[in-house]
Every structure is written in structure tokens, then in C-alpha cells.
Amino acid sequence: MRADEPERVDQVPVREMPGAAEYHRTISDADVVAFAAATGDDNRVHMDVTYATAMGMAGRVAHGILVQGLMSTACTRWADREGLRILSYGWDRVRFVRPVLVGDTISTAYALEDLADKGRKRRARADAWNQRGELVGVGTHLLYVVH
């Protein structure tokens, strides 16, 4: 497997899993600028279109962790729908498969790996797709159910 390939490329998209919750957002210039300001990550690939295109990108690239945050938002939507209070216990196997550009519309989905699991610690899958139907991010979320 190449480093840029998702580990679970053969698995069903999360949006097709039972009980999946989704979140959609178009990445704006303001999103990237605010994220850079909040985190201090002002790498030129995020902030300077000339630099980004010289690196072979089609434009400025959104922060990978911003995309992961959108996957986390799908988690919050899922928990709210299920009436659960949860805390994040962490993320495993997060991969940013393709660059997300300013102007891309990202659709994220989130679903439990095992719907029968009623324990406090649970595992879920999340993924993110762009408007062209390309997978851009994946991750496994560990969550703690408070009640």
C-alpha cells in the first residue's frame, strides 16, 4: 500500500453504514484563515496560492486537522440524534488521502462500527468526501459515552 492510499479502501463508505450521521460544509477562505490563526499553523501551502501551486497543488490546501474536525462534527450530530452525552477518547488511523482545497464542499459521515455495543467505550468510523466523489479523509474514532 502506498502512503497516500486509505487503509480501508475496500470498506463500504461510512454514509452507507446503518445509523450514519452526516455533515456537509464548503471550505471557505475565512475557514482556513481562522483555523491558521487559532492554531498558529500558517504553513504557506495553506496561506499562499502561489506557493501551493508551485508545490503542485491546484490551489491553497485546507489543514488536514480542519477536515478531521468536520468528521468530529458528524460525530456530534450522531450523538445528539441518539440522545447521548459523549466525550472523545481519541482518534486512530487518521489519514488525509487527498488535498482539500479552498472552495471544496466536503461531506463527512460518522457511524458506529458495532451497533450492538452498548459499553461506555465505543469505536466508530468516519470519512470525508469532496464534491467530485473523491475520498479525502478517513479515521477511526474512540468515544466515551457519559450517558
In words, what does this structure look like?
The chain is an alpha+beta fold and 147 residues long. The chain has a domain at 18-28 and 63-145: Thiol Ester Dehydrase, Chain A (Roll), CATH 3.10.129. Helices cover 27% and strands 31% of the residues. It contains 4 helices and 5 strands; from the N terminus they run E-H-H-H-H-E-E-E-E. The protein has helices spanning 29-39, 44-47, 49-54, 64-82, and strands spanning 21-26, 86-96, 105-112, 121-129, 135-145. A 5-stranded antiparallel beta sheet has the order 1-3-4-5-2, covered by helices on one side. A hairpin with a 5-residue loop joins strand 4 and strand 5 (135-145). It is elongated, with a radius of gyration of 16 Å. The termini are far apart. The model has no long low-confidence stretch (mean pLDDT 92).
Summarize the topology:
Blueprint: E1 21-26, H1 29-39, H2 44-47, H3 49-54, H4 64-82, E2 86-96, E3 105-112, E4 121-129, E5 135-145
Antiparallel strand pairs: 1-3, 2-5, 3-4, 4-5
